[in-house]
Description:
The complex is a heterodimer of chains A (112) and B (113).
Chain A (H helix, E strand, L loop, with lengths): L3 E4 L2 E5 L4 E7 L4 E9 L5 E8 L4 E4 L2 E6 L4 E6 L8 E9 L5 E3 L3 E6 L1
Parallel strand pairs in A: 2-11
Antiparallel strand pairs in A: 1-3, 3-8, 4-5, 4-9, 6-7, 7-8, 9-10, 9-11
Chain B lengths: L2 E5 L2 E4 L5 E8 L5 E8 L3 E10 L2 E4 L6 E6 L2 E6 L8 E8 L7 E3 L3 E5 L1
Parallel strand pairs in B: 2-11
Antiparallel strand pairs in B: 1-3, 3-8, 4-5, 4-9, 5-6, 7-8, 9-10, 9-11
Amino acid sequence: xxxxxxxxxxxxxxxxxxxxxxxxxxxxxxxxxxxxxxxxxxxxxxxxxxxxxxxxxxxxxxxxxxxxxxxxxxxxxxxxxxxxxxxxxxxxxxxxxxxxxxxxxxxxxxxx
Amino acid sequence: xxxxxxxxxxxxxxxxxxxxxxxxxxxxxxxxxxxxxxxxxxxxxxxxxxxxxxxxxxxxxxxxxxxxxxxxxxxxxxxxxxxxxxxxxxxxxxxxxxxxxxxxxxxxxxxxx
Lengths: 112, 113
């Protein structure tokens, strides 16, 4: 059974800091890993998708890496802004069909 | 471009009443469709997924059912709601088994009282 763990559970940083969110998974048989952002009371917004054959993906100030063999991914946020405050969720799509398994999320607060 | 619509946004229902939540996807054909529930402190749990019309797979035994009457329509139902059915319900779609990037709707907050 796939298990996804995100560390830290919560993070509070001043504006402008670079930060790293961590995600680990127990079963390396995955199609891809996806990072999402969720604002309070809202749905999930896809940030980055990394295919199992890829090592990293970048979008603006976001960079996600994937080390499938060790079951780890990191989401790097550069020059954080108050608007980045949200819950960040990591999910892996396992080779068992239809299985998108989520971590518990990291609650990020960026204060001015 | 593709969009996903989910309604209603919020719902308060008494115990024992029926439930129907609807999700539709526009701009794509034959998507894979998913229903997730997000409960406080428990993360996102996959409830149902569908790869085509009339094809439903259930992930966990529960008081809910799902149907897919049309290619881009996915419905979550219950005949009699329980207090434990309260939560945030999210519909999602992906293109196919080989293109598995998932896109989510805005969710429905269900409170059973």
